[in-house]
Design a protein that fits this description.
The chain has 93 residues and is of the alpha+beta class. The chain has 4 helices and 3 strands, in the order ααβααββ.
Length: 93
């Protein structure tokens, strides 16, 4: 039978903070958080995030994926056009 371990809030915060250890990831997270609307969502392109963090678009995509996987951000896809911007929301504990 697999052993079930419990995680504390402190453990979760530690894991999330590990994903904010670089300047680029901090800038991306803060850009999303600080430009949020009343509901917490930010509409921003990958190019805008790349420019703000001085990273490539591929680097931004990698950081966003890691942030999503550990629960730091949520993402809503906008498929209305090929140049539509996605929406992101920073999750805070």
């Amino acid at each position: 039978m697999p052993r079930i371990t419990s995680l504390s809030l402190k453990d979760i915060v530690k894991v999330q903070n590990q994903h904010l250890r670089t300047i680029g990831s901090k800038i991306i997270y803060l850009t999303i958080r600080n430009h949020a609307d009343r509901n917490g969502w930010t509409t921003i392109s990958l190019s805008e995030l790349a420019s703000a963090a001085c990273l490539t678009r591929r680097g931004v995509v990698n950081i966003l994926n890691r942030m999503q996987e550990c629960g730091l951000i949520e993402k809503q896809y906008d498929h209305s056009s090929h140049d539509a911007k996605n929406k992101y929301r920073a999750i805070t504990l």
